[in-house]
Amino acid sequence: MELTLHYCYITVDDAEKALTFYRDALGLEVRNDVAYGKARWLTMGPPSQPDVNVVLETLEADPNADPKDVAALGDLLARGLLRAVVFATPDCDAVFEEIRASGAEVVQEPIDQPYGVRDCAFRDPAGNMIRFQQPKG
Q: How many Å apart are CA 71 and CA 90, to the nearest integer?
């Protein structure tokens, strides 16, 4: 069986703030922007990977979700308990400095991990943790 990643989803509470962060701070390109009622889906991705898509979806993305579940998801998001994605980079320190300069919330400065990477972490405007890894050696 051969599989490739096509889409991954990240829940956000404010599509405009998320768009600004992922486009301007991370450099992802906007590939699609769909609104439906209160819901919005922003499909974005690294310019060098046209087949890999990160979809930022608002809390209201599932029209069939129970309002209690939407509220619970919003609570988890607000507390920073949802993880998002890990990006690979050849220069973790340079990426860290560039993203920090954007004003993003730093979770972890670059450090060498015992599992073979140098990595750092930020929170996006919704509170999702985004990590950036560079293979060591």
A: 39
CATH of domain 7-135: 3.10.180.10
Length of the chain: 137
C-alpha to C-alpha distance for 51 and 59, rounded to whole angstroms: 25
CA 133 to chain centre: 14
Confidence of residue 83 (pLDDT cuts 50, 70, 90): confident
pTM of the model: 0.91
Residue 74: other Cβ atoms inside 10 A: 15
Question: What's at 53, amino acid-wise?
Answer: N
Using CA atoms, how far apart are residues 82 and 11, in angstroms rounded to an integer?
Answer: 8
Separation of alpha carbons 99 and 92, rounded Å: 11
Q: Which residue ranges make up each domain of the chain? A: 7-135
User: If pLDDT is split at 50, 70 and 90, which confidence band does 129 have?
Assistant: very high
**What whole-number distance in Å separates Cα of residue 111 and Cα of residue 125?**
23
Beta strand 53-58 pairing with 83-88: unpaired
Q: 60: which 2 tokens?
A: 């209201």
